[in-house]
Amino acid sequence: MTEFLLGLRLLFGSGRGNRIRFFLMAVGGSIGVCCLALVLTVPAILDAHDARAAARQPVTSAKGPADGTLVLQRDDSYGSQSFTRVFVAKGTGGARSVPPGLSDLPSPGEVFVSPRVHELLREAPAVKGLLPGREAGVIGPAGLAHPDELYAYVGTERAKIADDGRTLKDFGYRYAPFPAVDSSTLTDVRFALATLVLLPLAIFLSVCARLSAASRMRRLAALRLLGLSVRGTQRVNAAETVVAALLGAVLGLGEYWVLNQVMSRAGLPGLRWYPDDGALSTTTVAICLIGCPALAWFVGRKSARDATANPLAVRRTAVPRPPTKWVGLLLLSGLGIVCGFCATGLVGRPASSLGLNAVLVVVGVVLTGVGLVLTLPLLSYALASRVARNTQSLTLNLAMRRNEAEPGSTMRVVTGLVLLVYAASLAQGVLIQLEQVTRPYGPVQEYSLPLSKLSAQQQLDLAKAPGVSAHTMLMNSWLDLDDPAPGTFASSATALVATCAQLEELTVRTEGCVDGKVLRLVDLNSSVGSELKPGTSFPFRFRTETKHDENRNIVMPAERVVYRGYEASAVGGAVLLVPPSALPADARPRDASLVLVGSSDPGKVRAVLDGIAAVAPIAEIELVGLNVQGLEQISVVETLLALGMIMGLVIGVAAFLVSVTDRAVERRAQVTAVTLIGARARTMRAVQCAQVVLPLSLGLVLALVTGKLAESSYLITGGGAVRWDVEGIPLLTLAATGVVVAAAVGSLPLVGRRIDPELIRRD
After folding, report:
1. How far apart are CA 278 and CA 281, in angstroms?
2. Could you give the CA distance from residue 740 to residue 661 in angstroms, rounded to a whole number?
3. Partners of residue 577 on adjacent β-strands
4. What is the pLDDT of residues 264-319, one digit of tens each?
5. CB-based burial, 253-266: b 16+ in 10 Å, e otherwise
6. Cα–Cα distance list, 370 to 194, 337, 525 (Å)
7. Looking at the whole model, is its pTM more than 0.90?
8. C-beta neighbour count of 740 within 10 angstroms
């Protein structure tokens, strides 16, 4: 305790510089702890979302009391969001359960809505058609997965849902029917966030714990020479590092509390939560308050080893030993695993992610990232030695000799930025893998809407909606089961009403299409309609403007158009291609659907759905090959990864700013000495810039190469169609170039204008 108190007295009584350093350590640590708390709380936010969704799920039975309560749940889409309506017909017998968020079940004619639906009814009155009845109240937070959810309980008569309704037994499942992020995807997201945030965070906290390491080590060496024991010297050092880390942890938890209150109310794209969902748990508080000071103590103990073991060498500024070469084994081991998986993709036999491979991929990625960080000082030392021996430039010679003497100091400045570029490659791979799993492989997305629910004007407006590149119509033939002469008409058939240009928008390739003629549709990858013979007649019913029905027969022709369709397409069930000119004038098919076509990009899909909701808010939309819940999951995952990238950027930039500030203070004596012997300020600025830019460029090149290899190994074992993300290379290269430019600009102010010779004599 005596040594600990001595450390505190030295900290607060040894000048303003030490107090500023302590403040920097605490503030830097608080930023890291805030990011750590945010990463640790994300799973709890998603779990709270799923827990409330599971608690309100109705448990039903096909058999129950004749007078029991009936429920019927409908999950539709409103724009790019899922809209859930639960129709309830109260009974006099059976279960009396009430869902969370309500005090009682709705009576016939009553509607309980979520706050977002309450606002929507004012913004878009047409939504009222989805909710027959009067608004009787608002669902409480306990009954909603998140504040922006579209959810409603509609009271109705038993006769209206008697056919499809089921008897209510209770409310509450053990699992959510549609989780915010499914378990397999959440594993990938956690892995990505750990790489994006936790690895740079550990480096950043280590950087904060080693601020002003040179002057602190000289002070510890002086105490050691005065007779203080090794353990006592370590306790003196721990007084500063541990107290600063503990104060930073407390400040960081407070920063997270404020951030949670603001973000939960403002929301993120695709992700909203209640403030209580993001409340700090006991585990998170314990990790932050115990783990961060423990890391600071470990780093401080390791950095103070030389001062306690050989204090004379520290006081006399002896030449430090070069970095050990054994740390390179970590990088080589990680690259060996990663390159092995990449080789399986090159030979056409990609490894799977089952069994041991799933563990090896993670181990390879982590070893490569950690090995990259630990090997940077060694590589910086080798680069500085080689350049200093061969260059004739005074600027490069000064810069490289300093890096050769202190390779670890320079790399503390650039490590966070290097890790950010490495992690960005992995984030790209995770996004590519998730998009392959949760969305169709084709470049187009189709939307099917019942034509009977649309007016003629709505049909025209939907064809012009933003993001819609083509539109067509599918109509089904009519089969009279009571016809006295069975066999007159064949079984029903589906016809595609489209031009050749529209057909090309819906398919990968077409051959033999002729505009203005009825043709037989033949898919090369399907046997649909292969049993139909030319000359077979199909009747189609049309409704005229005067509300009269009109029949028209279409004969299966011998001429055909051959096409190859996408994996998920509404065209796959059609056997006839009918030109729009062949339909009766001023008439609409009785049994038909409008098909809209747009890009399959998630952002474009959301835009089209929002456009459909603006024209026909109560129309039932079928996303061919995709569901709204999957689209919402993509949005949540993209938001989480974007949040991870932002936190990684904040950590990287904070590590750079803290390091360069500390470096400028530490090297004032050296800069003053070189300036006094005749070096110009321009030369010194170039030296400071070269000291940062050259090792940073080396690290970024390695980060780009190793990051792309790690990403490719992840994609190859994922089993998707994309194995080599070539399109992401220009973006990462541009980001790395921007990092180098920013680091060069940030290094220029390190040389002050005022020269103080007294700095040379200060300890």
Report:
1. 9
2. 18
3. 496, 519
4. 888 777 778 888 888 888 888 998 888 878 877 777 666 666 666 666 655 555 55
5. bebbbeebeebbee
6. 12, 14, 48
7. no
8. 17
